[in-house]
Design the sequence.
């Protein structure tokens, strides 16, 4: 790939598309942060050479990472809509999730004007794309969740969500709530949008390890958070600021 370049277009989504390293190294998490990486942890995951791409409108040229040009074109448009709805500007990079299918968000800024960084596992992408029920929407659900974390960083919500909590559940379910909010907005714009895939996707990634510090929420809790966020957008037509507040109150009761 070409050397890294830093070019930022106002209002656009900055995307870093990575290549897997020749020799993948084991990574050690220093903290239990759910799908959030600390600034220091990011370096061990950010082990790719990258080329920068801009997605301000979703119409820009794309790099075919998924092997499906139709999906990649739709993904560019989706990411532009998603970041506009949640009012964030993250960097986005595919990485080699050789040590476990995953996606992460970090408050670490690797380029000018970004609000943080989203890392999407290339193997997770392949697993989701192998699905039969709107796989592109399942990928969007994960992206929306991670962008929810970027919003939490930008708005200074992480400390409030984690205060006094033995697990990361509230922060994770709040990100699910925000993902559901995006799905509701998308459904308002496109009535046949399969928003239910968001709930099904997050349900599939729920866990029942309720005493584990990295507990994200049970399958039922994760799907329910998506549904609640969806209602706030689709049925109530609330603003993003209102949705954030409603979502905070919702997870505080769990």
Sequence:
């Amino acid at each position: 790939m070409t050397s890294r370049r830093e070019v930022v277009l106002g209002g656009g989504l900055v995307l870093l598309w990575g290549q897997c390293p020749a020799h993948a190294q084991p990574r050690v998490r220093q903290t239990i942060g759910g799908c959030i990486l600390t600034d220091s942890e990011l370096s061990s995951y950010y082990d790719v050479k990258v080329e920068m791409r801009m997605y301000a409108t979703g119409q820009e040229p794309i790099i075919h990472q998924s092997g499906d040009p139709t999906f990649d074109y739709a993904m560019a448009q989706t990411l532009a809509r998603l970041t506009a709805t949640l009012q964030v500007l993250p960097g986005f990079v595919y990485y080699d999730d050789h040590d476990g299918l995953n996606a992460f968000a970090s408050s670490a800024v690797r380029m000018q004007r970004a609000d943080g960084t989203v890392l999407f596992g290339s193997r997770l992408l392949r697993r989701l794309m192998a699905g039969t029920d709107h796989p592109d929407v399942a990928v969007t659900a994960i992206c929306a969740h991670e962008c929810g974390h970027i919003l939490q960083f930008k708005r200074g919500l992480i400390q409030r969500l984690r205060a006094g909590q033995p697990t990361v559940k509230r922060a994770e379910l709040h990100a699910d709530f925000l993902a559901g909010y995006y799905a509701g907005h998308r459904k308002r714009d496109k009535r046949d949008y399969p928003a239910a895939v968001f709930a099904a996707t997050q349900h599939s990634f729920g866990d029942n390890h309720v005493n584990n510090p990295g507990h994200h929420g049970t399958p039922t809790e994760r799907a329910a958070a998506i549904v609640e966020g969806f209602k706030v957008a689709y049925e109530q037509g609330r603003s993003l600021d209102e949705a954030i507040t409603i979502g905070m109150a919702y997870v505080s009761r769990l």
